[in-house]
Specification:
Layout (H helix, E strand, L loop, with lengths): L3 H14 L3 E2 L24 H4 L9 E9 L20 E9 L5 H13 L11 E6 L3 H11 L6 E4 L12 E3 L4 E12 L19 E14 L5 E14 H8 L9 H14 L7 H18 L8 H19 L11 H7 L5 H5 L1 H31 L5 E2 L1 H11 L3 H10 L3 E2 L1 H18 L17 E2 L6 E11 L2 E3 L1 E2 L4 E6 L1 E2 L13 E5 L2 E11 L2 E10 L2 E2 L3 E6 L1 H25 L5 E6 L4 E6 L6 H17 L3 E7 H6 L13 E7 L3 E4 L14 E10 L2 E8 H21 L7 H34 L4 E3 L2 E9 L3 H15 L2 E9 L2 E8 L9 H11 L3 E4 L3 E6 L5 H15 L1
Parallel strand pairs: 1-2, 4-5, 10-11, 12-17, 31-32
Antiparallel strand pairs: 2-3, 3-9, 4-7, 6-7, 7-8, 8-9, 13-14, 13-16, 13-22, 15-21, 16-20, 18-19, 18-22, 19-20, 23-24, 24-29, 25-26, 26-27, 28-29, 30-31, 32-33, 33-35, 34-35
Helix pairs in contact: 3-4, 6-7, 7-8, 7-11, 8-11, 11-12, 12-14, 15-16, 19-20, 21-22
The protein binds serine.
Keywords: Aminoacyl-tRNA synthetase, ATP-binding, Coiled coil, Cytoplasm, Ligase, Metal-binding, Nucleotide-binding, Protein biosynthesis, RNA-binding, tRNA-binding, Zinc
Organism: [Haemophilus] felis
Family: Belongs to the class-II aminoacyl-tRNA synthetase family.
Length: 874
């Protein structure tokens, strides 16, 4: 029996023998394609080749592509665990023709691979095919050339309520390459329920689609129109897991070797014996998507790709909880997975430590709220009306306990309960509104400013320019003229002002006209134009005016130092911590640089020192900083670091500081690294699970920081009458001394309290022959109260003692009962009774109990109630 890894290999070899180039799987994070959340089909990495915008050295390719279908257009997350063949992660085997062969070869190749005794040798009579309703050409090839009988060829039309919306018309997303397809189905046999495609029973598990052969012909536009592709092409996709199930003679994908290995490993880790348990299948599925997503640079977070990853991990952790997991378990599956995946697992082995750390951190974090959230949910589920959980509860679980909505839905689905999703959305919107109301956003000009043309940016070489006003915006709309005192956005035809981007803040400065001055407080980009945001401080300014615009050069210089230092920082972080460091966010301002990056744990102090040391070395090397405009491909070949998910044009700007740091960047930079002067970290911390933030200062700011720190040291040393070298020792001595003094003071207080307690013995009353001391005291601490009670017990031999001490609007209550009396009076019972009177509660042993309360004004009442109770019970 062929293993999954062997089947993958056979496929690639077959197509290699037919002149195809074997291409490696691309990342799950699609490069340069913001329309796509995750890679969800083999053709994604060839999208631009189909569209004629990119060329490769080959016209035939074959791949085994890792895919994730969760969270995006093709979303299978919620079905995992409920069906035999839905997965969040799967591998798609594919062969591609870029304007090379078309329908005929594509169909013959597929048939040969599936049925030839040399390859998969599947029985022909078990194979059925579908074609797009009007695709006579494909029908004829199947029927006349391949010899598939007419009763096993089914035409499928637009069965999804729109033109081209059909099971036999494949499209990547709302836009992009698409075309009619022909699909091949395998009949698993009449012992399984289900009917052929197009029949009423098609959803059963008997006839399973194994291969989709798409004849790529169109580029779908956002408005729905179909533009013809330059050359008809082919894109095929066969689910590796499905074809493996066929070849391994099992109906469910979860029975193929890879899943069985993962299921057994999970069962061993969790001590589960029932290998058919649904939760084991969910976990076995989820570890694949999670491990590969992390390997491809995604880390759990609260938005975008990171949130989908978080949702999948948390769902897996919840299923572990069902199976009785007591501690983090999910991350332990990574080595087994990496091994089971064969060649495709090599990337996991290479990044194993990072993947495991990231998973474990997320598991540990969620474990803290999971139990409490589940308890709340269980309680709510017992009270649901109409089999629907309220949106408020679902939102509370989301907001307070970190339960993604689909996790809550998963729990509900097991009880046949749905969620009021509209209610959930209402709560979510209300929360967003609250957040918006509390933040002080100004007018959002993004949808208002639409100026034809481009602002030419002169700011790499210049700090000032002559320019013409080409647009003015005030109070959220375009205007012809602004008056003194008015706030506005000024658009110029050219500018030296840098518009905020790539983390670098916008420039400030001044725009002068003959009779007017405009103070620029910020600069932003609106499409192709730069908006200078600020206030007209004198005169009037009109569209068409000639102006002279000048940035605050000193501020820009400080920003520039920070930007160049950020590049050195990025490179040094990777050198010291590893290649997993990827930029997640950055802020470059005149005062500070801030850098967020993927990193599962806090950075050790020694590593921070090393990073700082390397950066300062690079600064002292005073290397030349080279900026070059080149093709994206050339930049990549040079090893330039690009950001995940960022869209770059064909021509990019590359900033290099020797070989140490090469990045794609549009920001402003120093000419020589020596200008940065000095780099000092000021903080290191977490921003989200798996993401750390460092902040640092450079140049003048770094020097100022050192001065400030030195001053603190000097002042402290003076105060302590020593020098800065002996400061630590001196502080240590003082701390020891202060601890000693505190201890002595406490002993004294106890002694005094005991003495005071001794005096109180005189006040003892007799109730039915028993000594009773009931006193209201002031400012006696709890532990001293205890000492007083013990002392009184000793003095009186047999007694009941009740104290209420008030301090800072609080009441401390204590009741002591000597052991000969505890059969009649329980201290815990009495103290509770008193506590209720002063708005508190408490308890303790029968011979000694304490309580606290918040209503000192009721102390007298409480003590009288206590006395009355004693009289009644003694
Ligand atoms: N792109 C098609 C699919 O995903 C065939 O590869 O089904």
């Amino acid at each position: 029996m062929k293993t999954v890894s062997e089947i993958r290999q056979s496929f690639l070899e077959f197509f290699q023998s037919k002149g195809h180039t074997i291409v490696e799987s691309s990342s799950l994070v699609p490069e340069n394609d913001p329309t796509l959340l995750f890679t969800n089909a083999g053709m994604n990495q060839f999208k631009d080749v189909f569209l004629g915008q990119d060329k490769r050295a080959y016209t035939r390719a074959t791949t085994s592509q890792r895919c994730v279908r969760a969270g995006g257009k093709h979303n299978d997350l919620e079905n995992v665990g409920y069906t035999a063949r839905h997965h969040t992660f799967f591998e798609m085997l594919g062969n591609f023709s870029f304007g090379d062969y078309f329908k005929q070869d594509a169909i013959h190749f597929a048939w040969e691979f599936l049925t030839s005794p040399q390859w998969l040798s599947l029985p022909k009579e078990r194979l059925w095919v579908t074609v797009y309703e009007t695709d006579d050409e494909a029908y004829d090839i199947w029927h006349n050339e391949v010899g598939v009988p007419a009763e096993r060829i089914i035409r499928i039309g637009d069965n999804k309520n729109a033109p081209y919306a059909s099971d036999n018309f494949w499209q990547m997303g709302d836009t992009g390459p698409c075309g009619p397809c022909t699909e091949i189905f395998y009949d698993h046999g009449d012992h399984i329920w289900g009917g052929p495609p197009g029949s009423a029973e098609e959803d059963g598990d008997r006839y399973i689609e194994i291969w989709n052969v798409v004849f790529m012909q169109f580029n779908r536009q956002a408005d729905g129109t179909m533009e013809k592709l330059p050359k008809p092409s082919v894109d095929t996709g066969m689910g590796l897991e499905r074809i493996s199930a066929v070849l391994q003679h099992v109906n469910s994908n979860y029975e193929i070797d890879i899943f069985q290995t993962l299921i057994k490993e999970t069962a061993t880790i969790l001590g589960v014996s029932d290998l058919d348990n649904k939760s084991l299948r969910v976990i076995a599925d989820h570890i694949r998507s999670c491990a590969y997503l992390i390997a491809d640079g995604v880390v759990p977070s609260n938005e975008g790709r990171g949130y989908v990853l978080r949702r999948i991990i948390r769902r897996a952790v919840r299923h572990g909880n069902i199976l009785g997991a007591k501690a983090a378990f999910f991350y332990q599956l990574v080595p087994t997975l990496a091994k089971a995946m064969g060649h495709a697992g090599e990337i996991l082995t290479a990044k194993q430590a990072f993947i495991q750390k990231t998973l474990k951190a997320e598991e540990d974090q969620f474990a803290r709220t999971l139990e409490r959230g589940l308890a709340l949910l269980e309680d709510a589920l017992t009270k649901v009306d109409n089999k629907q959980l309220s949106g408020e509860v679902a939102f509370k679980l989301y907001d307070t306990y970190g339960f993604p909505l689909d996790l809550t839905a998963d729990v509900c689905r097991e009880r046949d309960i749905t969620i009021d999703e509209a209610g959930f959305e209402r709560e979510m919107t209300a929360q967003r509104e609250r957040a918006k109301a509390s933040s002080n956003f100004g007018t959002d000009y993004n949808n208002v400013i639409k100026v034809d043309g481009v602002t030419e940016f002169k700011g790499y070489e210049h700090t000032e320019t002559d320019a013409t006003v080409v647009g003015l915006f005030s109070n959220g709309k375009a205007v012809e003229r602004i008056q003194s005192g008015e706030s506005a956005v000024v658009i110029l035809d050219k500018t030296a002002f840098y518009g905020e981007s790539g983390g670098q803040v916008g420039d400030t400065g001044v725009i002068c006209a003959e009779l007017a001055q405009f103070a620029v407080q910020d600069t932003q980009k609106y499409g192709q134009v730069f908006g200078h945001i600020g206030q007209l401080t004198s005169g009037t300014l009109s569209v068409g005016d000639k102006v002279f615009a000048q940035i605050d050069a000193e501020r820009r210089h400080a920003i520039t130092l920070n930007h160049s230092a950020t590049h050195l920082l990025h490179a040094a972080l990777r050198e010291v911590l590893g290649d997993h460091v990827a930029q997640k966010g950055s802020l470059v301002s005149e005062n500070v640089l801030r850098f967020d990056f993927s990193q599962p744990e806090a950075i050790a102090k020694s590593d921070l020192e090393e990073i700082e040391r390397i950066i300062n070395c690079k600064i002292r090397e005073n290397a030349q900083v080279a900026t070059e405009i080149m093709d994206l491909d050339a930049a990549k070949a040079k090893g330039a670091m690009a950001l995940f998910g960022e869209k770059y044009g064909d021509r990019v700007r590359v900033v290099g500081m020797t070989k140490f740091s090469i990045e794609l960047c549009g920001g402003t930079h120093v000419k020589q690294t020596g200008e940065i002067g000095l780099f000092k970290f000021i903080s290191e911390g977490a921003v989200a699970a798996g993401v750390r933030r460092v902040e640092a200062v450079t140049g003048e700011n770094a020097i100022a920081l050192l001065h400030q720190q030195q001053q603190v040291l000097q002042q402290s040393a003076e105060l302590l009458k020593t020098d800065s070298a002996s400061l630590v020792e001196k502080i240590q001595q003082l701390q020891d001394k202060s601890k000693k003094v505190e201890k002595e003071l406490q002993q004294l207080k106890e002694k005094l309290a005991a003495q005071a307690g001794g005096e109180l013995a005189k006040n003892a009353k007799q109730i039915n022959g028993v000594n009773v001391v009931v006193e209201a005291l002031e400012n006696v601490e709890a532990k001293n109260l205890k000492a007083m009670v013990d002392d009184l017990k000793n003095q009186l031999g047999s007694a009941i003692i009740v104290f209420a001490s008030t301090a800072d609007n609080k009441v401390n209550l204590i009741v002591g009962v000597t052991s000969d009396l505890t059969n009649k009076i329980k201290a815990g019972e009495l103290v509770n009774l008193l506590a209720q009177e002063v708005g508190g509660k408490g308890g303790g042993r029968p011979d000694m109990a304490m309580a606290g309360g918040s209503q000192p004004e009721n102390v007298e009442k409480a003590l009288s109630a206590g006395l009355a109770w004693l009289k009644a019970n003694l």
